[in-house]
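Key result, reporting period 2: structure in, sequence out.
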């Protein structure tokens, strides 16, 4: 077999410039999650974590507006970060026990952590029942309080600090 050099006669109609002036797949920005999408993701992660823990037999009740408010505050805390909300790792704990942890965008460098602390609701009617009646149920019902705390932990320091 003979190898022939490629001459300029084969470069007809082609130039060294980029034919597409738009962003390439590596340059295309990944959209930041919306409040509703983050609330759905929180719900999915809590369901998965509940199924993998000792809470699998228990029924966990979460107030309807809790996840929407938590996702709204998460996005607000992430506004000033270099990668925005895409650089966040969200850690959810219930009564001091870590229940779920996930990165909002696994392809983005984690620049900060958002810690979401949920508590049991002690003001509901089940708290008035004696413990032996609670133990008779199939695993009990855990009711999450509508109040929560959320805090941000930065994982870097800028030169200005």
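The corresponding designed sequence is given below.
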């Amino acid at each position: 077999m003979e190898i022939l050099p490629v001459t300029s006669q084969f470069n007809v109609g082609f130039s060294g410039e980029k034919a597409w002036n738009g962003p390439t797949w590596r340059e295309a920005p990944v959209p930041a999650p919306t409040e509703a999408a983050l609330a759905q993701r929180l719900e999915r992660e809590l369901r998965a974590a509940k199924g993998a823990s000792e809470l699998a037999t228990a029924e966990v009740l979460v107030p309807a507006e809790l996840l929407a408010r938590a996702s709204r505050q998460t996005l607000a805390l992430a506004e000033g970060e270099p990668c925005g909300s895409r650089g966040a790792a969200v850690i959810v704990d219930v009564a001091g026990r870590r229940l779920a942890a996930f990165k909002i965008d696994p392809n983005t460098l984690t620049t900060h952590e958002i810690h979401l602390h949920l508590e049991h609701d002690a003001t509901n009617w089940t708290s008035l029942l004696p413990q032996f009646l609670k133990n008779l149920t199939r695993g009990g019902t855990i009711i999450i309080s509508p109040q929560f705390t959320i805090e941000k932990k930065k994982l870097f320091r800028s030169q200005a600090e």
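The first helix runs from residue 35 to 52. The helical segments are 35-52, 66-77, 131-136. This case is discussed further under Risks and Mitigation.
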